[in-house]
Amino acid sequence: MPEFSTEVDIDPSEFIDACSKRERDRLIEILEEDGYIQSSTETLANNNGVRRPNINDEIFWDALKVLMKSRHLLTLEEEQTIIKISDKFKFLY
Hints:
By secondary structure, this protein is an all-alpha fold. The protein contains five helices and no strands.
């Protein structure tokens, strides 16, 4: 049988544009895990001379990451509690 090969040239921006939000979030997780990029919490804590995170910051950020990844497992009451807490601070941003 004859053999054929194909080559597809995809620009990285085309690839990212074609991904869903969930796929982009997963891509970011993979890049962070593999050390290609810093996590957003590390970046926020290290830019422009801002203090480095302490252990309490890291514990809190880890807890937030778990909540973000597990949102679909929260009860409606738990989700509303989290939203209520964040509503207290919306005026800051």
